[in-house]
Amino acid sequence: MIVLKFGGTSVGSPERIKEVANLVNTSQKKVVVLSAMSGTTNSLVEIADYLYKKNHDSANEAILALEQKYYEVINQLFSTIEYKEKGKELIHSHFTHIKSFTQDMFTLFEEKAILAQGELISTALLHYYFNEQNIDSVLIPALNFMRIDKEGEPDLFYIKENINREIDNNPTNTIFITQGFICRNAFGEIDNLRRGGSDYSASLIGVACNAQEIQIWTDIDGMHNNDPRFVDNTKPLANLSFDEAAELAYFGAKILHPASVQPCKIANIPVRLKNTMKPEASGTLVSSEINGKGIKAIAAKDNITAIKIKSGRMLLAHGFMRKVFEIFETYKTSIDMITTSEVAVSVTIDDTKHLNDIVKELKKYGMVEVDTDLSIICVVGDFIAESKGYAFKVMESLQNISLRMISYGGSRHNVSLLVNTSDKKEALNSLHNNLFNHV
Ligand code: ADP
Ligand code: ASP
Ligand code: MG
């Protein structure tokens, strides 16, 4: 069994959906995980936003525009009158459902149900397309097996049990199609694995089915050595270890959802990153193999907030750190970077939901300063202790950038630097030129 996940652009047009059908139509048993067609989830978020604000006119306008787009997709995807009709009925029923939410109270529950429609539609379209082509495929609804618990963590036992039952019910089939991103929560309500979460769905499914490999098909030929949205001449990496890929994903390499590597690492299932537009390109293989030493890639994560606790009575007294960390634990807020000095401790967070409460509690221990609009730049590789000069090369590249925090030595895979977001692009480019371009 293998798992293949296709992202938004990979199913972004009727031609691309046909190309996906072509790529997965082989005799090997597989689960095909799809995202919504590109742009759809953003439109659904916009619609939900209008509904929260009770702006029904704008919501209806956006719903109609999206619905119209799908009728055009149907027209080009299917060639027979029978399937054009079936396709229209499908779109009509999903959009009738979306429109039903414009009548009542609008809460998180309705929002999640609206956001789920993109993946429900894309998977039904691929399934119908296979039917029209007389190719057997089975649609297994993610809402029947993908579940998160009260903490928002995947319930792997439930997922395993239920997806395998769905697959075992169809012993002669080889192509199973399912939705990425969507799931049910501990109360059985429709929920999701957060934006970009289809990669995470693919990993969880791969682990649940004990797949030989998980393939993430996207619009680029693998993990590049820097963020191609901000830096020119980035290059794909042939191999990465799970740890290196996890660091890059966590620190902003959008090609992988931050949580998607860990389950594969634990189950030791290789992840291959492939380009739908260029299937012959070898892409990146993420596995337990450690390949090559030194600096391999750079990523950046935005929307970082730094909190500094300064020179209180308790500072550096024994037990102080525990008290500080307990505050973050109480508010379920994870810390990304930490630096300490004789008189202060600084930490960074990206989830600011409980910032006010955290600051209030921290003030018991000293003066607290909060800084926003920061980015963490993360330099990833395999930095063996005997090899000297990695940190020097990184610092040298950033001599013109004001550095807010530096973290080195936490693991042998990562140097992290905190900069103002306004300096991020320059920092990424300077690092790229200094670390990769003249070797
Ligand atoms: P999908 O819709 O297929 O899930 P995403 O847009 O989520 O695709 O991820 C692919 C995008 O990730 C690429 O188009 C690229 O712009 C961006 N990206 C950011 N950092 C990297 C990186 N280091 N390597 C490759 N792609 C990256
Ligand atoms: N469709 C969802 C999103 O746009 C999930 C995904 O694409 O991975 O966030
Ligand atoms: Mg993605």
Please describe what this structure looks like.
The protein folds into 2 domains: 2-219, 3-Layer(aba) Sandwich (Carbamate kinase), CATH 3.40.1160; 296-435, VC0802-like, CATH 3.30.2130.10. Helices cover 39% and strands 23% of the residues. It is built from 14 helices and 16 strands. It has helices at residues 14-24, 40-52, 56-77, 81-100, 108-115, 117-132, 156-168, 198-208, 242-250, 261-267, 320-330, 355-362, 390-397, 424-437, and strands spanning 2-6, 30-34, 138-139, 175-179, 182-184, 190-192, 213-218, 239-241, 271-275, 284-287, 294-310, 335-340, 344-349, 367-382, 403-408, 414-420. Strand 5 (182-184) and strand 6 form a beta hairpin. Helix 2 (40-52) runs antiparallel to helix 3, helix 7 (156-168) packs across helix 8 (198-208) and helix 9 packs antiparallel against helix 10 (261-267). It is globular. Bound molecules: adenosine-5'-diphosphate (ADP), aspartic acid and magnesium ion. Magnesium ion binds next to loops.
